[in-house]
TrEMBL record:
This is 3-hydroxybutyryl-CoA dehydrogenase. Pathway: Lipid metabolism; butanoate metabolism. Belongs to the 3-hydroxyacyl-CoA dehydrogenase family. The keyword Oxidoreductase applies. Residues 5-183 form the 3-hydroxyacyl-CoA dehydrogenase NAD binding domain. SUPFAM superfamilies: 6-phosphogluconate dehydrogenase C-terminal domain-like, NAD(P)-binding Rossmann-fold domains. Pfam families: 3HCDH, 3HCDH_N.
Length: 283
């Protein structure tokens, strides 16, 4: 099967990044979200990013126009009727994702692959709500998608070798490095990264140091490009909490208990960069 047209479901920071890289690789992209204005916001984000590259002399106005012309706007999952692949990057909520996959299974061509960018939900469970579990797979990108090299290729119990190799090849074509991961809570990166962030938030909660102090020690003492508290704000505190809950429930191990301070910030709606306030304030 040759992939030519891809639907990306969700036009937030991950969905827009994935759409940008697909379009710059030469694919036709159907960018889908529940509201047209959300997709337009995603396209504006891509456009801004491309303008930066033009300013740096790495891209021309013509290339930008050609790239954007490969992206079409969609607010109906029915628009998946003529795509060969769907990459779902909707909000990290199990019921929402399962609903999307049930619908996609009805409307996408029988041989289309249904991939999820989920950062921690089980691929096996998502696959089980479809009639094509062998064609369901995790394709997990990292933020910012145009910069980060890794794609975790997460295989559910029923994912076929053929599906895996098509997605592995696609990731390479997108100039990413795919790594095969088994379907267990948090996969690999988030199983390691998010408990580290949770521990950093515990350190703030216990008064070990301020958010700035914790960020400073991890940047200067462990050579992290971004401190863990800044990174938490950047990922979204709701996403960090959702992943901790998945680890806690999935392994049944108290070492994964979410920090009460993280929970409190999410209750306050202080979700990080996307809401203008998390551990830091953004303008
Ligand atoms: N989109 C596209 N490009 C971007 C970008 C964005 N949002 N943000 C930065 N860049 C590019 C810049 O244009 C710049 O490119 P050049 O060097 O080619 O000019 C490059 O990235 C470096 O940017 P800056 O110099 O502005 O800043 P920096 O050196 O601090 O790098 C960073 C920014 C790449 C984001 C770096 O801070 C970093 O690696 N941070 C950690 C990111 C990380 O850990 N991501 C994973 C999050 S976990 C996740 O995504 C998975 C999940 O499921 C939760």
């Amino acid at each position: 099967m040759k992939i030519e047209k891809v639907m990306v479901v969700g036009s937030g920071q991950m969905g827009s990044g994935i759409s940008q890289v697909l379009a710059q690789t030469g694919y036709q992209v159907v960018m889908n979200d529940i509201k047209k204005e959300y997709v337009e916001k995603g396209i504006a984000k891509i456009s801004k990013q491309l303008d930066r590259e033009i300013q740096k002399g790495r891209r021309t106005e013509e290339e930008k126009a050609a790239l954007l012309s490969r992206i079409t706007i969609s607010t109906e999952l029915e628009d998946a009727k003529d795509v060969q692949l769907v990459i779902e990057a909707a909000t990290e909520n199990k019921e929402i994702k399962l609903g999307i996959f049930r619908k996609l299974d009805e409307v996408a061509p029988e041989n289309a692959i249904l991939a999820s960018n989920t950062s921690s939900l089980p691929i096996t469970e998502i696959a089980a709500v479809t009639n094509r579990p062998e064609k369901v797979i995790g394709m997990h990108f990292f933020n910012p998608v145009p910069v980060m090299k890794l794609v975790e290729v997460n295989r559910g119990l029923a994912t076929s070798d053929e599906t895996f190799s098509i997605i592995e090849d696609l990731a390479k074509e997108m100039k990413k490095v795919p790594v095969a991961i088994k379907d267990f809570p948090g996969f690999a990166v988030n199983r390691i990264l998010i408990p580290m962030i949770n521990e950093a938030i515990y350190a703030v909660y216990e008064g070990i140091a301020s958010p700035e102090g914790i960020d400073e020690v991890m940047k200067l003492g462990a050579n992290h490009p971004m401190g863990p508290i800044t990174l938490a704000d950047y990922i979204g505190l709701d996403t960090c909490l959702a992943i901790m809950e998945v680890l806690y429930e999935g392994f049944g191990d108290p070492k994964y208990r979410p920090c009460p301070l993280l929970r409190k910030y999410v209750e306050a709606g202080w979700l990080g960069v996307k809401t203008g306030r998390g551990f830091y304030v953004y303008n």
